[in-house]
Amino acid sequence: MLTMGVLSPAASRSAVTALNSCYSASMSSKALQEMMQRAESWPEAAQAELAQIAREIDAGLSAGSYHPTAAERDGIARGLNDARAGRFASDDEVRRVLEKRRPA
Q1: Which superkingdom (predicted)?
Q2: What's the total number of domains in the chain?
């Protein structure tokens, strides 16, 4: 989870403007362009968080490969072990989890 940093109004506007200019030329998603425009009116801390998230996504895309954390590797190993042992969630269990996670 990211913590929201505090930037000056000029720095926040600059971050959003930079994101807009970087993505506007190559974006095919009108929805993303609209969100960037809406973000310009967000509070400074929210703009800073958006800029940080975008930087993290960009860094991940340019890295070329994903390297899971130790905790993620442990979770992957547990899941594979459960699958090998035939332990799977029932359709009802999956449905209940998804219903809890989906917005109403």
Answers
A1: Bacteria
A2: 2
